[in-house]
Amino acid sequence: MNPLPGTATAEPEARTGEPALAVEHLSVDLHTASGTVRAVDDVSFSVHKGRTLALLGESGCGKSMTALSIVGLLEPVAEVVGGSVKAGGTDVLTLGRRARRRLAGPVLSIVFQDALAALNPVQPVGRQLGEPFRIHHGLSRREAKEKAIELMRIVGIPEPRARARSYPHQFSGGMRQRLLIAMAVALAPDVLLADEPTTALDVTVQAQIMQLLRDLRAERDMAVVLITHDLAVVAEHADDVVIMYAGNVVETGPVREVFADPRHPYTRGLLDSVPERAEKGKPLPAVGGSPPELSNVPPGCVFQARCPLARERCADERPRLTATGPARAAACHFSEELASV
Amino acid sequence: MTATLDRPDDTAAAPKRPPRWWLLLGRDKLAAVAAVVLGLVLLTALIGPLLLGDAATRQDLNASLRPPSFDHGITGLLGTDILGRSVLARLVEAAGTTLSVAIPAVLFSLVAGSAIGMWAGYHGGRRENIAMRVADVILSFPSLLLAVVVLYVFTPSVANIVFILALARIPIYLRTARAEAAELKSRLFVDAARTFGTTSWPTIYRHILPIAMPTLLTVATLDFCFVMLSESSLSFLGIGIQPPDVSWGLMVAQGRQFLQTAWWIAVLPGVAIVLTTVSATILAAWVRLATDPAQRWRLTLPTSKRGKRSVTTEVTA
């Protein structure tokens, strides 16, 4: 299989050198009681250092599953059945457990959505933030704590030295998310995955957290993979976007181009459903229907049931991701048509 | 940076330093009393025999079955047994024996059972199956019968009694620890630890043990009573502590035949067992609360207010 022409998601000037993270043809199966379903189907994307890639899609489209398979946290019911995940030049999927552990932290790390659940409730946060240093750098408890306090200061927690003794439940939601980010960036990873980092927060705090991620990305030259369903966050904070639907990538490219001129009917539908674009007095346009059951994905185009452009061809033949511009691609037979509309 | 904006509204709840544990203990009268009782029992077991000399074994048939009174000095305070030996001195002597069986047995089974249980629960799969089936096998023997068989084959020494009691109780901790670990391993903070490369034992030690520990400690204190009683059963059957050594359980067993004529011989060691175990249980309940960071503040309140979720307690939180 040749790499698809449009899957390189970075803009031309940034495409020099190896990407920090390159996911190629990743497929993940879920073994459920009622049979095996494909949760992630032939997903490819790559991110370079210092850039942010957004994985965008509605609930259940496979974006979190993609993230979990990258960091190796899949539940036993899920199985990676194909593809590769290259980080720092090596395919992490083929590594042994020991080798993979060495990459966990300094190369790949993840920020979870639910910060309260991701922090140990019975440990002071200072000790938890020090844990990566103790594991990877073999620091003593005291040295690790100093590092943890330094990290807390970097992510903007007031009075870090006193707060290091507090427990997670004594922090507010925004502060907890900062702690989680601090823990994720502790070992200066090349790639930071952020799995809906701001979904549980209110809008002002959300903006602060996104700004923090952006500052850290610039300062530490990280590649950020932002997993979200929030179009506004993507528009504001991401450089490139991968739009997923029912486990498939339907459109990729630089955010600015994709959002200004969507080439897939699903992308277009998502953008039309943003309230700011709606006309007053008219019902809010939405993508009608709901995504297909993963156990019942149609043989042709995954989006055909909800697509305003669906024709006979869509029922038989699954559209491949084909280039629609220098750095972008869409999986639709009629993307040319959309461009002219 | 607008960091101060989302600063927690309960800045008062973030003390500069958590209160010292002995201050918390002082706030809880019942737990403090329990701690003092346990401390006294330990102290008695350690230095009591040195002070009393051979009073525990000195026989005086003239003084046989004397009831507790103030007339015969300190050794006669709690009466005498059929051979005229001081019950007080024997209680002190027995404290050492009893604790030297019960404490090592409980500690050994707690450590071994928890470690194996958490390991099995964390990894799951085949390791879990093997550990649990072995535990089932041990549990399917009546533990006393197991002890009887083993102690008949080997000599009934203190070390053997400790070993067999510990072995019989391992499954209790193993099952509890496995259940806790199996639940905790799917929690997000364990996943989070794995995302920066923590290996299995550090994960168990840092993230699972601290949460499972209060439960395990509570089980251990309850088991402490069980082990003391098992030891007395074995002593009663003649394969436990061998005379002239003496334990509380053995004293109860020996005093049984005089229950109608000389109640103090059996009842007083019984009271000692009850006092010790009740104190241990109360202290365990306190430890469970004091080791939970989200519950600890309750201990800083007066006992009368504890457990009530009124507006005032929320504010002081």
Automatic annotation (TrEMBL), chain A:
The keyword Magnesium does not apply. One of its GO terms (cellular component) is plasma membrane. Transmembrane segments: none annotated. Keywords: ATP-binding, Cell membrane, Membrane, Nucleotide-binding, Transport. One of its GO terms (molecular function) is ATP binding. SUPFAM superfamilies: P-loop containing nucleoside triphosphate hydrolases. The keyword Ribosomal protein does not apply. It is a peripheral membrane protein. Residues 21-271 form the ABC transporter domain. One of its GO terms (biological process) is peptide transport. Belongs to the ABC transporter superfamily. This is Dipeptide/oligopeptide/nickel ABC transporter ATP-binding protein. It comes from Prauserella flavalba.
UniProtKB/TrEMBL annotation, chain B:
The chain crosses the membrane at residues 30-52, 101-122, 216-241, 261-287. One of its GO terms (cellular component) is plasma membrane. The keyword Cytoplasm does not apply. It is found in: Cell membrane. Its main location: membrane. Residues 95-284 form the ABC transmembrane type-1 domain. It comes from the Bacteria. The keyword Heme does not apply. Keywords: Cell membrane, Membrane, Transmembrane, Transmembrane helix, Transport. It is a multi-pass membrane protein. GO terms for biological process: transmembrane transport. Pfam families: BPD_transp_1. Belongs to the binding-protein-dependent transport system permease family. CDD domains: TM_PBP2. This is ABC transporter permease.
